[in-house]
UniProtKB/TrEMBL annotation, chains A, B:
Domain GST N-terminal: 4-91
Name of this chain's protein: CYFA0S03e01200g1_1
Keyword Nucleotide-binding belongs to the record: no
PROSITE patterns for the chain: GST_NTER
PANTHER family: GLUTATHIONE S-TRANSFERASE 1, GLUTATHIONE S-TRANSFERASE-RELATED
Gene3D superfamilies reported for this sequence: 1.20.1050.10, Glutaredoxin (3.40.30.10)
Record family assignment: Belongs to the GST superfamily.
Organism per entry: Cyberlindnera fabianii (Yeast)
GO MF annotation terms: transferase activity
Record's keyword terms, sorted: Transferase
InterPro entries in alphabetical order: Glutathione-S-Trfase_C_sf (IPR036282), Glutathione_S-Trfase (IPR040079), Glutathione_S-Trfase_N (IPR004045), Thioredoxin-like_sf (IPR036249)
Length: 262, 262
């Protein structure tokens, strides 16, 4: 591999950062995590704006020592695309067929464009709760019923539909791959598609008790199984979770991850 | 150009379909529009499920007469990517530099991943209004105040931030391009980035009176100007708007667009 640029991940708790940590670990890259704390707020802290004009994590900075100079990447799907293109030289996580390439690009867009909106709606609905000074107390008292209403007419039906859709896709993959025990969303290996879906499907959907009736392994056996072998049980994912834990436990100090030094 | 596949756009009113119609017109392709009517509902009609398992428009179907067979594309960003790759052989809308390519991929993800969420939140907030049988009348009476609260703490600040960000990017493009009168988001021509942003920035943001204070040309002069020359005034965009109008006025009949026949 040609000389690696200096890689810095500007990390923020409870965001899509786990996806990028996981990716960097799968690629075996060295990197520095500069962590930020939400300090109880829904919104990202002002300090992140010094690294990118939108101030939202994950922000991945690459310092090349050639004419490329410094490159700052944002948007998870785009980061996955870029990093695989430049650092997965053996095509371990890149599809090898034309159809596979198209399929991976689809899933990168599907993750944010379709799967994420109901999750985002639910996230803000439980966090942007009106203050009593702006709305009468009676409104606030009924707010929980309103949340239930939105879950019933929008969040739950959509997430149920998407999880059954993913289950169906995995079933088709199983048939295509001669009944293989472990199947992935594109071709026959973990690709950028799984790395992108890992956040929505594994972390947000399966990781949230609110959606337990949707993620019941009896309803979506292949997806429930995929969440384990393709995400939670991957050593690179486990290391990402450990890194996040040590950031929070260690009081949000800068962390250097050296994949080759240990 | 090699023989074109048969192209069918499954179209639904008030969706991102205008983006794909515009794209097909820019590429000078012939296509058939099979339109669907929401019939007053927020959700897409069941009939769309026969064309794709998620039943959401835009759905673009390509029938090749070679080994590729039928390809069904969904997710706007992915559709733009695919169509430019295979049908923009002269690279009229594709960046020519490495940096430009990276930048276009970023904007394709930014459009749905960052710009769209507050617009989607606002869209559902004004459409998923609880029924009186599920929540007390007093809650419904105060719902408008709640909408104002969400606008104040989330929708407006985010959309303001994003429009100022886009303005800043256009200013940088202007400087890079020697003060050119017309600038675009990537390199010096209309690319997939503008085609992707056209929906959020032009249709959803500038097209909605609710956001008039955010889209004031005094605040975002370059963006307001871009919305005109890069979107609304493009002949290909105007033809897309006309096609949509004739679908609705004509009672949702199938429409064949023959770019070479007239």
């Amino acid at each position: 591999m040609p000389s690696q640029p200096e890689i810095t991940l500007y990390w923020l708790e409870s965001t899509r950062c786990i996806r990028i940590l996981w990716l960097l670990n799968e690629l075996g890259l060295d990197y520095t995590i500069v962590p930020y704390d939400k300090k109880g707020s829904v919104m990202a802290p002002k300090e992140l704006y010094q690294h990118h004009p939108l101030g939202k994590a994950p922000i991945l900075e690459l310092k090349y020592d050639d004419e490329r100079g410094n490159i700052t990447l944002v948007e998870s799907g785009h980061i996955i695309n870029y990093m695989l293109k430049w650092f997965d030289l053996e095509k371990k996580f890149i599809p090898v067929t034309e159809e596979g390439e198209r399929s991976m690009d689809y899933f990168l867009h599907f993750a944010e464009g379709t799967m994420q909106p109901p999750l985002t709606y639910q996230f803000y609905l439980t966090r942007l709760i009106p203050e009593s000074k702006q709305l009468p107390e009676s409104f606030r008292e009924n707010y929980a019923k309103y949340q239930e209403y939105i879950d019933e007419v929008y969040t739950f039906p959509k997430l149920e539909e998407y999880s059954l859709y993913l289950e169906k896709l995995l079933r088709e993959q199983k048939e295509k791959n001669g009944g293989a025990e472990k199947v992935y969303f594109v071709e026959d290996k973990l690709t950028g598609a799984d790395l992108a879906l890992g956040f929505e499907a594994a972390t947000s959907l399966f990781g949230n008790p609110l959606y337990r009736h949707i993620t019941d392994p009896k309803r979506v056996p292949l997806l429930a199984s995929w969440v384990k072998y393709a995400v939670f049980d991957r050593p690179a994912y486990k290391e990402a979770v450990e890194a996040e834990k040590s950031i929070v436990d260690g009081g949000f100090k800068v962390l250097k991850i050296d994949q080759h030094g240990h």
